[in-house]
Amino acid sequence: LLNNISLFYTDAVKASVLIYTMPAFTSLIYIVIYRSINIKYVMTAILGVTGILIFIAVDKIGTGELIILISAFFWATGTVLSEKIPVKSNLLLRVFYQNGISLLLIVLTMPFMSDDIQLPLSVISQPRVLLPVLYTGITGGVFVYILWFYMIEKGGAELTSCAILLSPVISVFISCFFLDESVTLSMLAGMLFIISGLFIAFRKEKSSGR
After folding, report:
1. Which of 37, 51, 144, 176 is surrounded by the most beta carbons within 10 Å?
2. 3-state SS record for the chain
3. CB atoms within 10 A of CB 42
4. Whole-angstrom Cα distance, residue 24 to residue 28?
5. pLDDT tens by residue, 122-140
């Protein structure tokens, strides 16, 4: 909901990429909770945020950008709570509850967001429209979150939050190879920072398990 509101004040590229500042907020929350600093995750968060800001060549933090940062903070809080609050239900039930509550909130709030919401059944019944919607819903709303909760259980909230930094990097490669979009120098520089942060997080995690 916050992401949608931010689009009134900023462009879609900034909105879709700035949300990945979430690992920085996750590390900040852990610093407050434990009153200690985990250097590897702090370094990953700093490099990730720096890479994201360079990636989108942000020149100011306006209303739209601030709303996205608030959304990223809420996402980080939810990630930490997913690790800290014991839940007895399995992964599928957690994802079902999450999607059910999300759908309810969207149904309740969207009429207040726009007075021109139309979703004709004739449009939904068209395969060219229905298949992408189903793919996005099943993959992005179910499968991804099953992996998300699984990673939180096995690797912890901080490592899981760092893993999402792969998203903007993968998006660039997909848009480059499949949509023939150009990659700018700022994108390359930003990806370099992000990948460096990921290397720190996962390399040290691997070596510590030996």
Report:
1. 51
2. CHHHHHCCCCCHHHHHHHHHHHHHHHHHHHHHHHCCCCHHHHHHHHHHHHHHHHHCCCCCCCHHHHHHHHHHHHHHHHHHHHHHCCCCCCHHHHHHHHHHHHHHHHHHHHHHHCCCCCCCHHHHCCHHHHHHHHHHHHHHHHHHHHHHHHHHHHHCHHHHHHHCCHHHHHHHHHHHHHCCCCCCHHHHHHHHHHHHHHHHHHHHHHHHCC
3. 18
4. 6
5. 555 666 767 777 777 777 7
Going 147 to 50 to 68 to 173, the CA torsion angle's sign is negative
Reported confidence tier of residue 120, pLDDT bands at 50, 70, 90: low
Model pTM?
Answer: 0.72
Distance CA 134, CA 161 (A): 26
Neighbouring CB atoms inside 10 A of 105's CB total 11
Compute how many other C-beta atoms are within 10 angstroms of the C-beta atom of residue 194.
26
Report the amino acid identity of residue 63. T
**CB-based contact 18:61 (threshold 8 Å):** no
